[in-house]
Amino acid sequence: MLALLLLLLQSPPEETFGHKIGADEKLPSWEKVVSFYRRLEKESDRVRVEEKGTSTEGRHMLLVTVTSAANLKRIDAIQATQRKIAAGDDKEAGDAPAVVMFIATQHSTEVASTQTLCEFAHALAAVKDKATLELLDHAIVLLVASANPDGVD
User: What's this model's pTM, rounded to 2 decimal places?
Assistant: First the structure.
């Protein structure tokens, strides 16, 4: 029941931004992007937002993790396994989920990628179809909403 309620509550990006993604002459501020991800984290048991530091101008540097709720509950164990795999211990791979990372906006003129990741994160957090849910059981999606948040505004 709680999972169903969470799915119904997940707000699309335009509710935070005040306009649809890609609307002419409309770009969300970095503050609104951060607010969107924090809202999505509160509304979905598939999303975790971590601040990994601050930019030169003091903006939040975010890492957003999207996966199944079960994977989020055991994320520390998954990370430990991934470190072993990275060190060459292939026998640890077993049923470890794949890890995929998307990095957006390295340069200030690359406005579409930050916005696109917002829609992508929302879609992964709100999906209900069996194929996507199964994919999230077998994958950890890491999103760096912007490698250069100072250039987003």
Answer: 0.84
